[in-house]
Design a protein that fits this description.
The protein has about 160 residues and is α+β, with helices and mostly antiparallel strands. It has a single domain, classed as FAS1 domain (Roll), CATH 2.30.180. The chain has 7 helices and 7 strands. The protein has a 7-stranded mixed β-sheet. Helix 3 crosses helix 7.
């Protein structure tokens, strides 16, 4: 138990260390500066969503790490990068209009994403969105907030 707690604390510290100046940058620049969202940033660029996510907002972004994208089946990321419409649908499923802080989350809460489909928040055993763990929360940017998640969540098809 202590080992798991120390590992989780180390991971959270590592993830949030890159966000020291997040409040001075927008969501995209914050993700770039963190260094752990290279795949997400490339996907946002390929889908043509950079200007939107650099816009006024506010936005809440549930941001999968590079490790989350790496856990997808082989060829998935490459296939999505070649299909901007499908990629946009998945990426916008990770974004909620408005600024939703972790203190706003409640058990069983649903939120409508920019994609138009709902996501569900659970708190039992730690905060999750559609089963993906929220591993770092409340990274405030000038135009919203980022919550780091450990999996890519997929919209209903």
């Amino acid at each position: 138990m202590l080992r798991r707690t120390l590992i989780a604390l180390t991971a959270a510290t590592t993830l949030t260390a890159g966000f020291a100046h997040a409040q001075e940058m927008d969501i995209v620049d914050t993700a770039v500066a963190a260094g752990t969202f290279n795949t997400l940033v490339a996907a946002v660029q390929a889908a043509g969503l950079v200007d939107t996510l650099k816009g006024e907002g506010p936005f809440t972004v549930f941001a999968p790490t590079d490790d989350a994208f790496a856990a997808l089946p082989a060829g998935t990321v490459e296939g999505l990068l070649a299909d901007p419409a499908a990629l946009s649908a998945i990426l916008t499923y990770h974004v909620v209009a408005g600024k939703v802080m972790s203190t706003d989350l409640t058990e069983g809460m649903t939120a409508t994403t920019v994609n138009g489909a709902d996501v569900t928040i659970t708190l039992d055993g730690g905060a999750k969105i559609n089963g993906a763990n929220i591993v770092a929360a409340d990274i405030v940017a000038t135009n919203g907030v980022i919550h780091v998640i450990d999996a890519v969540i997929l919209p209903p098809m």
